[in-house]
Amino acid sequence: MNRATHSIPTFDSMLLPTIQALQMLGGSGTTEEIYDRVAQILNLPDEVLDIPHGNKSQSAVEYRLGWSRTYLKKYGLLQNSSRGVWSLVSTSIDFDILDAKEIVKVVRDTDKKKVMQPDNLNENVEAVETLEELAWHQQLHQILLSLEPSAFERLAQRLLRESGFIQVQVTGKSADGGIDGVGIARISGFLSFHVLFQCKRYQGSVTASQIRDFRGAMQGRTDKGLFITTGTFTRDAVKEATRDGAPPIDLIDGEQLVQRLKELGLGVKIKMIESVEVDASWFTKI
């Protein structure tokens, strides 16, 4: 284990910075906004932020920060919407009286009690659903990594079409400066613009130099680019993609990719579980 791994902050050390980040964001924020702000608060260097969590499509810091949010939610300080926005339960939380060790202790003690009580069906179901979420997520990511490059390009083509793009074509030309395809994005049926996209199927992180190379290939052809990967993007790559004065490049990492495939039902089947409840009072009225 190298020094960089040792310097990855633990989930409990990011509990209070997460609260602080949300306060700075006005009481609510997306996971990406919280991640960026916590990284600033803790002054985490890029070499730490770019360390992946095993072979998963997210960084170690992102993974641990997910646990931080979960603990804060169970403690009653955070809540989240189905749209991935996290918010403080109260904007008047007194940051000075919060104790990270106390939060961890209370949540773990509560979880132990729930395990001992067979009546807590909702909590047990939630735990099972969390494990299932991790299972399908990891399985899908491994399948994506096993695809042939041409198959991954066709998947990107289908993904864009299902997302509202038209005239999506896969070029597949190695001499095309890294451009894997082109399409036209339509907004509300009125506006449209050409988009060049590149697909990179691997576990590593896309670097700033790769973003610059992609932008160079875009030169004179379009003002908009899309970079899709099963891996992650380094902090410098994210900054380069949105650099002032340069054509913007939207980024889709492995985490966003599997979630989008789920939303669109591409290669993912969602089964609804039937819940049957007997209405005893109904029989008393016969």
Describe the overall structure.
The termini are far apart. Helix 2 packs across helix 3 and helix 9 runs parallel beside helix 10. It contains twelve helices and ten strands. The protein is globular. A five-stranded mixed sheet has the order 4-5-6-8-10, sandwiched between helices. Strands 1-3-2 form a three-stranded antiparallel sheet. A two-stranded parallel sheet has the order 7-9. The protein is α/β, with parallel strands linked by helices and 286 residues long.
Brief digest:
By secondary structure, this protein is of the alpha/beta class. It has twelve helices and ten strands.
Major pleated sheet? 5 strands, mixed
Intertermini distance: 70 Å
Low-confidence stretches: 118-131
| Main β-sheet, spatial strand arrangement | 4-5-6-8-10
The overall strand count is 10
What helical percentage do the residues reach? Answer: 40-55%
Approximate shape: globular
Secondary-structure content class: alpha/beta
Helical stretch tally: 12
Question: How would you describe this structure in keywords?
Answer:
286 residues; alpha/beta; 5-stranded mixed beta sheet; 3-stranded antiparallel beta sheet; 48% helix
Q: Topology of this structure?
A:
Elements: H1 3-6, H2 15-24, E1 28-30, H3 31-41, H4 46-49, H5 60-75, E2 78-80, E3 85-88, H6 100-116, H7 121-146, H8 149-162, E4 166-170, E5 181-187, E6 191-200, E7 205-206, H9 208-218, E8 225-229, E9 232-233, H10 235-241, E10 249-252, H11 254-264, H12 280-284
Parallel strand pairs: 6-8, 7-9, 8-10
Antiparallel strand pairs: 1-3, 2-3, 4-5, 5-6
Helix pairs in contact: 2-3, 5-6, 9-10
